[in-house]
């Protein structure tokens, strides 16, 4: 009985605060910010990757970003991303690429604002610190993508060496799509840990952010599956929005994912508040 009461209190606290603190509007802000930050980030990352010699970066980046999206949503956007990324750019570290990094960091700032509200904390760090941290997230994400891109270049050689040493691994080496999905999923998990741990104001232990991350991952999987099923069977986006259908589908999809992300932070905050209250009364 106590567990049922605890779950109910956490749910009412999390969802009530989400509704009272404009969570629906924040999800819209986060979705649009994410979409607007996507292309600048990939332009900056591709330019830096080309400078570092990772010529296959654009294909890797598309897989890392879109492999976990439903095909109906990912394919139209991925095509446009490839068209943008295959344009030759020689302006590394010029004003245009630096500006792209700045716009990409706006997506990180949207994540920060959403999580600050979800965790019910007041931001006390300076705007310079926050912006530098956001740019650092962009650069670190770029370096991680480049590293994965370079590793994937050597993947066939590593696979042959592994097969020569371990016969039992051979049946698993041909499933490239599976490995790409695993890598993309790993990037998402590590990204969620990083943003929950470092972006919001205040300090949290790892155990404090785990429930919200688990909820986010599970709800993202369920939400994307349901939305993809809806697009396959019931959607009339193409007839309603014509040439804008793909972008509208992406916006709606990102809005759903943003809602889930913010609620994940709300759950972490609600659980922490409940445990703190229990500790104060000695229950």
Automatic annotation (TrEMBL):
One of its GO terms (cellular component) is plasma membrane. It comes from Neomesorhizobium albiziae. It is found in: Cell membrane. Pfam families: Virul_fac_BrkB. The chain crosses the membrane at residues 34-57, 92-111, 132-158, 178-199, 206-230, 242-263. Its main location: membrane. Keywords: Cell membrane, Membrane, Transmembrane, Transmembrane helix. It is a multi-pass membrane protein. The keyword Membrane applies. It comes from the Bacteria. This is Membrane protein. The keyword Magnesium does not apply.
């Amino acid at each position: 009985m106590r567990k049922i009461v605890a779950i109910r209190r956490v749910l009412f606290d999390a969802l009530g605060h989400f509704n009272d603190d404009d969570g629906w509007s924040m999800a819209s802000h986060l979705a649009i910010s994410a979409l607007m930050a996507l292309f600048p980030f990939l332009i900056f990352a591709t330019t830096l990757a080309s400078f570092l010699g990772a010529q296959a970066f654009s294909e890797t980046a598309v897989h890392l970003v879109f492999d976990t999206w439903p095909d109906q949503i990912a394919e139209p956007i991925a095509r446009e991303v490839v068209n943008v990324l295959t344009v030759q750019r020689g302006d590394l570290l010029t004003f245009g690429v630096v500006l792209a990094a700045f716009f990409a960091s706006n997506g990180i700032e949207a994540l920060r604002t959403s999580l600050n509200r979800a965790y019910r904390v007041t931001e006390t760090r300076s705007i310079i610190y926050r912006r530098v941290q956001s740019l650092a997230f962009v650069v670190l994400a770029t370096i991680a993508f480049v590293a994965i891109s370079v590793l994937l270049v050597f993947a066939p050689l590593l696979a042959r060496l592994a097969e020569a040493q371990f016969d039992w691994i051979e049946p698993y080496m041909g499933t490239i799509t599976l490995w790409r999905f695993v890598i993309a999923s790993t990037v998402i998990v590590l990204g969620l840990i990083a943003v929950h741990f470092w972006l919001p104001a205040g300090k949290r232990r790892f155990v404090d952010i785990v429930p919200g991350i688990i909820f986010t991952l599970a709800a993202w999987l369920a939400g994307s599956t349901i939305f993809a099923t809806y697009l396959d069977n019931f959607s009339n986006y193409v007839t309603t929005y014509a040439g804008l259908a793909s972008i509208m589908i992406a916006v709606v999809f990102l809005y759903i994912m943003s809602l889930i992300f913010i609620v994940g932070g709300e759950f972490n905050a609600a659980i922490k508040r409940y445990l703190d209250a229990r500790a104060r009364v000695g229950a």
